[in-house]
Design goal:
The protein is an alpha+beta fold. It has 5 helices and 3 strands; from the N terminus they run ααααββαβ. It folds into 2 domains: 2-42; 47-117, 2-Layer Sandwich (GMP Synthetase, Chain A, domain 3), CATH 3.30.300.
Length: 120
């Protein structure tokens, strides 16, 4: 016990410096974590797969669709769900065109495709 106390006394400046650095890093971490909204954090950390990018490109070229965002859920190599958010989703014909295109390109049931309007 005496050796430990002597070591602490001899290295007091180093211990204070290391403690201060750790405290500063913790404060910076929590400040940075709190400044990001959950949505911004998710978008910045999630990248689109090549398949999602291709689908976004195809759908945005369909008349009336407009800006598009896509998420494809896969399990064991097969598609279990597709979510599409686009500007033209309010139009029934545009929704029908999207539904047909996605079900055709992936050869999946239309029941696992969800289409939503994009907030402008």
């Amino acid at each position: 016990m005496r050796k430990a106390l002597d070591w602490v006394k001899e290295n007091k400046k180093i211990i204070i410096a290391v403690t201060a650095i750790v405290i500063i890093l913790c404060v910076l971490y929590f400040i940075n974590k709190g400044s990001q909204s959950p949505t911004a954090a998710m978008v910045s950390t999630q990248e689109k797969t090549p398949t999602e990018q291709k689908l976004m490109g195809i759908l945005s070229n369909i008349d009336g669709v407009g800006t598009t965002d896509v998420m494809i859920n896969e399990s064991n190599g097969s598609i279990t769900g597709v979510v599409i958010v686009c500007q033209g989703a309010d139009n029934i014909m545009t929704r029908s065109n999207i539904l047909n295109a996605v079900s055709t390109v992936f050869n999946i049931d239309k029941k696992i495709i969800a289409i939503y309007s994009m907030e402008i």
